Amino acid sequence: MNYSAEVLAHYRNPRNAGTLDPQLPDVGTGQAGSREQGAVVRLQIKVEDDGRIGQARFKAYGCGCTIAAASLATEWLQGADLDKAAVLNSAAFVEALSLPPVKMYCAMLAEDAIQAAIGDYRNKQQE
Amino acid sequence: MNYSAEVLAHYRNPRNAGTLDPQLPDVGTGQAGSREQGAVVRLQIKVEDDGRIGQARFKAYGCGCTIAAASLATEWLQGADLDKAAVLNSAAFVEALSLPPVKMYCAMLAEDAIQAAIGDYRNKQQE
Amino acid sequence: MSKRPIYLDYAATTPVDPRVVDAMVPWLYENFGNPASRTHAYGWDAEEAVEQARAHVAALVNADAKDIIWTSGATESNNLAIKGAAAALAHQGRHVVTVATEHKAVLDPCHELERQGFEATFLPVMPNGLLDLDRFRAALRDDTILVSVMLVNNEIGVIQDISAIAAICHDKGILLHVDAAQASGKVAIDLQATDIGLMSFCAHKTYGPKGIGALYVRRKPRVRLQAQIHGGGHERGFRSGTLPTHQIVGMGEAFRLAKQEMADDMQRLAVLGRRLRDGLLGLPDVYLNGDADQRVATNLNISVDHIEGEALMMSLPEIAVSSGSACTSASLEPSYVLKAIGRSDALAYSSLRLSIGRFTTDADIDAALQLIPREINRLRELSPFWED
Amino acid sequence: MSKRPIYLDYAATTPVDPRVVDAMVPWLYENFGNPASRTHAYGWDAEEAVEQARAHVAALVNADAKDIIWTSGATESNNLAIKGAAAALAHQGRHVVTVATEHKAVLDPCHELERQGFEATFLPVMPNGLLDLDRFRAALRDDTILVSVMLVNNEIGVIQDISAIAAICHDKGILLHVDAAQASGKVAIDLQATDIGLMSFCAHKTYGPKGIGALYVRRKPRVRLQAQIHGGGHERGFRSGTLPTHQIVGMGEAFRLAKQEMADDMQRLAVLGRRLRDGLLGLPDVYLNGDADQRVATNLNISVDHIEGEALMMSLPEIAVSSGSACTSASLEPSYVLKAIGRSDALAYSSLRLSIGRFTTDADIDAALQLIPREINRLRELSPFWED
Ligand SMILES: Cc1ncc(COP(=O)(O)O)c(C=O)c1O
Ligand SMILES: Cc1ncc(COP(=O)(O)O)c(C=O)c1O
Ligand code: FES
Ligand code: FES
């Protein structure tokens, strides 16, 4: 598999790798995939008072495309408001990273992790 | 098929090719093989008063080994007496010409033609 | 090899064009990757080269590159086509039709099908070597699942009317396989314009390397085929095994050159072939085998009455020719192709196949026309049938 | 290819040794004859070269040259051996035994036999990748006609105890086929001393060209086999098709060099392999796949816990390696070989195969030992499993 320049850029230089404290009320944590399937994406968002995402962090286990998608997700998330974040989908990742069809799964993991992180944050806010 | 030097020597320079008058009482003519089988050898011998073969001639249709065997046959026949001629067999040709197994048939044609020529001569003498 | 004979046996195999050699060599030591290695540049480069070569092969016959499957040669292509299609279509019928003058690489797979319980019809040809189309049509039955007819005959060079045969098969909805091993680079082939489901090729009759071939397997409409070599599922699942990049690149380059140079090559060879033919057919009791017009200019198959073919070849160490196909010349049987066109045993035994190609020169033809008549005369002098 | 990565994927394919290239090239343009052409010097020379190469291949494994059949590679050899022997022996029984960790080129033909109505047993292996001989013996039945076990595994490099397996088969009178594609030139093979009926080889794992292989078919006592490619009856009738002289000469030269240099090569590679192994197994949570001792020194297969193999390879553009076999690396399934030795999915996904060979240098190992740990650390920093 010959990866696109976009994938390689993110993969070699991942943005925003790391962890936020998942206990904080303004941090949403989402995870998708499983170790048995060979890929896991964890995304965390820290939502500011104005409703925008201030910080996003990822950790990923999986192929390079998965890592690149998770990295790109944090870039897109930072500065976005939650509604905009919620519509980020796998197709957007496939396009931005020029992913081949066999790598659809990696993009879906990023989408699912975003949804899970937003859901986690919203749950916390409702409590 | 890579032919032996012995075959090539006879084949390139056949000895005693030609025809004797088959009507003459002291000429024996023998032929073996058939056109349909792809090979024919015709041998003729002219027997002198002392019982020795003075002249031998051949014509042959067939592969190079057949032609070489017929040519060699005339060499062996000339100067031989009939008893000696009668024992010339295919094995002798195979050995002298280093014929490979697939070329046994060619040697047998020479043997058969010799026998036929001697038989023809002896028949004529008995008449 | 000491002094090299003049090569007039291009139908047995051709030299690899030096430009093809140059294209192949870098894929041995420098770019040696396995095209199946998806994890590094060695593999990617090899895969790219393989796909480029596939496009070149497809282009020569106006096919889609995706319809080309790599094999180890035309023998394997024919086996895959015939046994693979028969197995895939066995539920529809168990009758196949081919021609008595096909190459053994078609006849033997058909015999194998007979052993497996299929029925095979081996159609006779007319005295000119061509298929009688009415007879062909009449041989097709409701349970006929496959027809296999070669485009150019390897022994006598006749060109079957494949367009007409394809049209008949199309009408009856019967899958057609064409062995084009001897045709590529000599005869124009247009697979978009002709309804042919399967076509076999090899590189080594078209200035490419031996041991590589291809099978065209049409996808639209889809031709069903059962793989014959299993193990990993390369090549759309039809043919497993590591792809030999250098061989494939060689075939691609050979077919690219064939497309580029076919018109010029064949024009030049038509002149040389004509001179050879006129010179030899001018001798007494020398006969042309195969149709006088429906033939490739590069093949001249003659019967020289009253002498035997092997003896004649042996008389001509300065010239490399064959008597019948290279595959049967070791046996003592007369050629089954010449028998099929109605030649007597005697004329079959006395046949000589001269085939010319890209590297044949005027001087080669001069030499042949000097030597061959001389040796014909010499051998006829030795023949018991000439004087009689 | 711009700057070439360090090649540590010799198990996928090897470069063709430049001496082998030199031996091959003259058979493309200069000596291009068809070995089946019996009527002229071009053919005779080619045939002689083919027979000399056959002797070289036989010599490496102490076999009689007459027992060697040319094929297009180990995939075809395996197909011919397994399907050909099963067809020939079907009247004696319809059960075959093989191993779950075989190459697809063995497994898929066995699956094909199942489709044909044979029964196939795919034996599990022990966690070290080796066959449990008691379990193997117990799997053999009265109707078992064929056993197929590979000598060296392509993914994890373990060496099966073929002498013991052969002795068991011998006792029971069962034909044994051995896929030795990964073994030639690495492991000593003596076919006079071991009762093996069929053995598959290819050239391209032993510094020869891709697209050529061989099958050893013992004649004394005679192994029965049904041809799989029909058409003219070359190669004792087992495998038809024009013999590719240059390819065969290449395989012959590669195997001649292997015999000559195996001892020295393997001694040198044992040192390099050891260094690589010690360096990587010294990292935390890195595990060796396959037996620690019963393995070829050229193969190192590790699982790097907490990260994924493809990602690791992608992090190492300076090094060409593979994760699992080259044939399955494109799929998203974890390697079936690693699963068979009991690795969890996670460890199977995190595997890396490094394989070294004749042209691997000390500097290559230095670079690998510098880059691989660095990237393992970098990826682990990104992994949600490392910190946890
Ligand atoms: C018409 C035809 N078909 C098939 C073949 C066999 O192909 P290959 O030599 O690639 O095995 C040949 C040549 O030998 C041929 O002339
Ligand atoms: C053990 C084993 N068997 C068979 C094969 C297939 O052989 P080939 O590449 O010649 O088709 C390979 C390599 O790909 C192999 O490693
Ligand atoms: S996670 Fe394995 S393909 Fe992307
Ligand atoms: S006569 Fe044909 S082989 Fe000698």
* Total individual domains of chain A: 1
* Shape label of chain A: globular
Q: What fold name goes in the CATH topology slot of chain A?
A: Sufe protein. Chain: A
Strand content of chain C: 5-15%
Largest beta-sheet details of chain A: 3 strands, antiparallel
Shape of chain C: globular
Q: What is the average of the pLDDT values of chain A?
A: 92
Q: Which range best describes the helical content of chain C: under 10%, 10-25%, 25-40%, 40-55%, 55-70% or over 70%?
A: 25-40%
Bound ligands: pyridoxal-5'-phosphate, FE2/S2 (inorganic) cluster
Order of helices and strands of chain A: HEEEHHHH
Helix content of chain A: 40-55%
Annotation keywords:
heterotetramer, A: Sufe protein. Chain: A, three-stranded antiparallel sheet, 5 helices, 46% helix, globular, C: 388 residues, alpha/beta, seven-stranded mixed sheet, 12 helices, binds pyridoxal-5'-phosphate, binds FE2/S2 (inorganic) cluster, iron ion binding (chains A, B), iron-sulfur cluster binding (chains A, B)
